[in-house]
Protein 1
Amino acid sequence: MTNRKKLKPTEGVFTANWIPYGYMYSPTAPNGIVIDPETKEYVQYIFEAYITGKPRAQICAELTKMGAPSPSKRKEQLGYEFRNGHANDYWPMTTLNFFLINPMYIGDYVDGDVTIASYQYINHAIPEDAKLPNIIHGHHEAIISKDLYIQAATLYHAQKDFRTSSQKKSNSLPPTPFFNLFHCGICGRQMYRAQNVTKKLGCYSAYICSSYRLRLPDACQKKLYPLNDLIPQVHKAILQEFKLSQKLASQVGEEKSTSYKKTEAYFQSQIDIAVDAVRQNSAAYNQLENRMEKGKITPEEYNTEKAALDKEAVEFSALVVTALENIRTFRKVCSYKNKWLQLFSDFDEDFVITRKTSRKYLKHINLYPDKPMEITFQESEERDKLQEYLSLQKGKGSGRLKRHYTRPTIEKTEE
Ligand SMILES: [Zn+2]
């Protein structure tokens, strides 16, 4: 009975989006996976070329030259989902890492950390705190032999261990906690991160407009933004955003009371005004028909007035739709359902900027040579709307309430 668990789709049965390169999804296959005849040989080529000592960059260049579809390209061809917005027409070097240690290619299924699994195959030392993955042997058809896999994985780890240990010895550069967030405030282009080690500054990392770096004809002026200057500014801004969210959350809580209801009533009144306008328009139309039937107006007068009423009918219907949308947005934004409030609710005094957190909270940062950076936070539209609604509730002039729209004027049609 214990083996039943392995039959669960998450543990060993593939779905289309999780199929590794070289295989295809097949709902009729026992575990959902069959060999992809179009790409199988490229997988074999990768392993065979790698164990001859060919550099990975060269293997990638040759795969591209051979016309081998890149992993993302193949996913696109097969109609599977893939992470990046567009498929690569070339083989990025990092993709090879996924192949060289993956026991998938010898027909085994790994539920857990593939790197740890590969250590097990080659008798590499396993870190003490590592969680051993669950491996299902003979899970599906193999593309390469176990011998070839062991050779490749051994070589890969040997090179990797060497790379990390030699990096530690040298002056390693600080990793950036930001990923593609910085843009040039002047031209809008992506900022390029330049790295250098100097005697005076030590490890030195700074952003510079990519137009300068690429020597474009309309390049921005040379201006370096050191990474170490940017981090505290961004950190401070995120902390402020956390604090603001706490403040606004408390107001949302208390504003469920009278002033929330007052504002809600205001939005309701806007619906009533719009609905009333539609009604009056219909009534005016009936009266017009009446007058026409009784011969009180000429066909020309009738046509002119009818055209005006038709135009109004369109406008007033749109008002009803807008008013309904407004009250729905108000209720959603001015509550704990507000996406921005939810995002920034996990306030943490010890907040640290990492690649993960910077992506989570930040959307875009513009850098300027002569003024402070401009930060766009995730879900900031919801924050702006919330602030607007809260200031409406604070009654910062009833004039602001009227800003949405006022009662439409309707030409009175006297009987
Ligand atoms: Zn620029």
Protein 2
Amino acid sequence: MKTRPPKKRTSSTKHPSAVPAKRAATSRKRSPKTGKYPDIRRDLERQREAILNETGEVLTHRGDIEAFPDVSDQASAEVDQNFSMRIRDRERKLLKKIDEALERMDAATYGVCERCDGDIPYKRLKARPVTTLCIECKTLQEQEEQARG
Ligand SMILES: [Zn+2]
């Protein structure tokens, strides 16, 4: 049996620009990450940025306040600090929810109810993009929480 040496394709590989790559590139160009809800993703990303900017501001203000040497100022600074910490805590939680929502978008599980696996209506997602429950399940959950006290 004769073994043929592999053909050398010098002429075609030398000029990759000559290959009509257009067709292959355009059909798969759209990123799957955009998914079904590109505008909600945009909302989430905008909200995320806003929170990050705000919390950044809170941090710099705190630095200013702490520099006051006066005792009474110190006391009010502590009140401010508690206040801003509470805000930051809430924002941190929201930020986490936003991140999770974006992750669900990447995983293509966004817009699916965690509890009943049903589709969450677009209107609800638009109004509350970080939600993981459809209205029915959310209502049930709230009723359960109330029952627990
Ligand atoms: Zn549900």
